[in-house]
Amino acid sequence: MSWMESLIDFVRKYKLLVALLVLGPPLIYLAVYFFAPFIITILYSFGFIGRRGVITWELTIKYYQQALRWVYLKVFYNSVILAAITTVGSILMAYPVAYFIAVKAPKKWKNLLVVSVMVPYWVDFLLRTYALMNIFTMMKMMFTYEAVVIGMIYDYLPFMVLPLYANLEKLDKSLLEASYTLGASPFKTFLKVTLPLSKPGIASGTILVFVPAIGEFVVPSMLGGVSVTTIGTLTWDLFLKFHNWWRGAALSILYIAVVLITLIIYMRKVGELEI
Amino acid sequence: MMEKAEYITSEVEDMVVLRNIVKRFGKVVASDHVNIEIKRNEFFSLLGPSGSGKTTLLRIIAGLEKPDEGVVILEGKDVTNLPPYKRNIGMVFQHLALFPHMTVFENIAYGLRLRKFPEDEIKKRVYDALELVKMPHEMFAERKPSQLSGGQQQRVAIARALVTQPAVLLLDEPLGALDLKIRQHMMLELKRIQRTVGTTFVYVTHDQGEALVMSDRIAVIHEGRVEQVGTPYEVYEKPRTKFVANFIGEANFFEGVLRNGAVETSFGVVKVVSDIQSGKKVVVSLRPERIRVGKTAEGADNKFEGKIREIVYKGDVLIVMVALDDTEVKVNVPATHPEARKLREGEAIRIGWDSGDEAGVFELEAE
Amino acid sequence: MSLRDKLMGLYSAFVYAFLYVPIIIVIIFSFNESRTLGQFTGFSLKWYQVLLGDKVVWVAFYNSLNVAVITTLVSLFLGTLAAYGMVRLDIGGKGAIDSLLYVPIIIPEIAEALSLLLFYKFSGYDLGWLTVLLGHIAFDISFVYVVVRARLAGFDRSLEEASLTLGANEVQTFLKITLPLSMPGIIAAALIAFTLSFDDFIKTAFTTGPGFQTLPLIIWSQSARGGVGPELNALTTVIMAISMTIAYIYAKLTMEKQ
């Protein structure tokens, strides 16, 4: 045992070294395969040209100028609108269900009900959207805006249900009872007690839905085809169809900046987000 | 059955010595120059309110915290820099900390396995330990902690800590989560176990009832400092500071200036016995059960006439609040007192007590 | 239950139906005799037979599995390491490191995908299996980190302290107490990592090279070309079955913990 003990003493003395050994590998991996790519993306957005380490580059902002053209801003705008509709739609669908399970359902059923909501979502996004394709094809609704909206809500619903449920579950039922004894009707109680108290849940859900929905690619592409364009489909086309990496990079950086700013505002207002 | 002799591991008189221990957490001083000596075979309690630093001291003895200054001596050896697993201690945690993924048997055997005891020896010791805490092994050895009641988990935690025969057993408020009746039963059980095995017990609690019932000696801790160390009798009857008098049991407090063996209070002159300098401001503490009423107060040194403001009936005792001018005095009148039934709210009453040990006198400190 | 409650229950049932119907339809029509949609002409397993005989699908399945397993192992190791390091070590700058470690989760997937592509182009990697794998691992490390860290945060330190007082040193305590008790969390993280990699589409689409296909890519390309069809339905059903089985195991584990 003595080598183990001297190892432990070593660990105690050289805390910093151990920290490096433990946290180093994950951080280094991310540095190489996550952060470095981002820096390169930023460089590309400024017109970077380089292959296999050889750099020929003229710094330029023309790609940002291109990305900010009216055409693209319109796409941004449409994406935000679509994301907003998705968010509102999913709140309207998710809230009653979450409320029902959290507040009204008998205890034995709660777990089962929550799991049942989640079960369809263990299936991959892509597959679920494909499943919708079946229905829309049958109903001859393919490639319509409505199909995309329904598809978005369908795919993002669980991200709204879970935070709402978690929030409502923790609600102190005796607060509702207190409200009743003070003379408020169930409807009034809902408006004045439940709803305000579920704001954090609504906020979490909104963040989990709205932010990713802006850049969604799969749903508009599969269900909307060429008739619906979002930042997601645009980026895809720029990169994989037209190979215009520079404009695509600039567009992405703008998009990421918007996302980060939204999140920072959210965190300032609410605190931390939980997953 | 474990014999007492098997538990005593050394000949040292002072099993645990804390010398000049100082421990800070940021700006807070949890332990402020603490000196304590705990003797062999003692049931020693660290008693104090929440946040007084008593748990910190226990953890320093265990080696789970390292003191900023000072020395910890166990069985005559300086262990200040040794980790817990190199100290000959056992510990019962506040929330028991039984390993949930192991059976009762495995929990208790854990320490023995680490010390590489042979399998049949382990079995014998584990069964003996269960017998010591009065849990038949046929019923409990294979259960998991989640299948036991609070009191049963308690016993397993004790058995686990004792089976390795440590020199000192440290207990961190182990009875806090139990119901009142079970707690009272466990207090006697702990005392019995300690007497049986003879191990030195160091017990942390904020409940003076527990400390008074179980301990051989008590250290009263307040804001990181030791206020007084003594037997239960000593800390109760002869408190040395106002804090101890207030914390243990109840007391009435009267302020005044001490002159010639008496204190001039707002309701009269109280005769006391004290070696504090004449002319100083003091506080007199007087326990409610030391005050006599009615006829029995006749021969007292200190006699006062007052008015009964309130009577609370508590079964075995009547709590009588007596007004002496502007001062309210709490008197505990036993239900067996001849005049107990005649007391009425609003009526006059005579109360009295003797000077001397009956009333403690302390210098009034600026607070 | 009042009328309002009944209405709410009804509405919830409707939502549940909304969730399940598309999936059920996929499953039903994977057993359809003919190709026509909307009409169930007869029960048949022939599409599954076609699937079994389709070499391309098998190769893609193997690829998806291969990438997912390696990704899980590597990201599990690195992510758990990071989680333990953050929770147990006593160093400054924890907040910053924590943010660095979970940033990948916040950034939109398509942005990550394209930056990986640019990175590979710049560094001269050949696109294919390796590039897909490396991208998956980066993303999964963050997820594993977040999940394991959350589980560790709720861990009862006094169990470790009890072990120390019973005579075990830090290493023994870690092996006998900490690790076994963290297992449910680690397994949960492994399952999430596996599923994320197996189901991944966007990152894979951007970083894959000629000839390297995964199952999601097949579904994508075939549905884009030929629209809906019974073989795809069959394939979808199979993948759904795999995902659901894994998720079921995951749910069982988290349920037990409670």
Which properties best describe this structure?
heterotrimer, B: 367 residues, alpha+beta, Rossmann fold, OB fold (Dihydrolipoamide Acetyltransferase, E2P), six-stranded mixed β-sheet, five-stranded antiparallel β-sheet, 10 helices, 35% strand, disordered N terminus, C: 258 residues, mainly alpha, MetI-like fold, 11 helices, globular
Explain this structure to me?
The complex is a heterotrimer of chains A (275), B (367) and C (258). Chain A is built from 13 helices and 2 strands. Chain A is mainly alpha-helical. The longest helix of chain A is centred in the first third of the chain and has 35 residues, at 70-104. Chain A starts with a helix and ends in a 5-residue tail after the last helix. Chain B is elongated, with a radius of gyration of 25 Å. With 258 residues, chain C is mostly helical. Chain C has a single domain (56-257), classed as MetI-like (MetI-like fold, Orthogonal Bundle). Chain C is 80% helix and 0% strand. In chain C, α3 packs across α10. At the A-C interface, α1, α2, β1, α4 and α5 of A face α1, α3, α4, α5 and α6 of C.
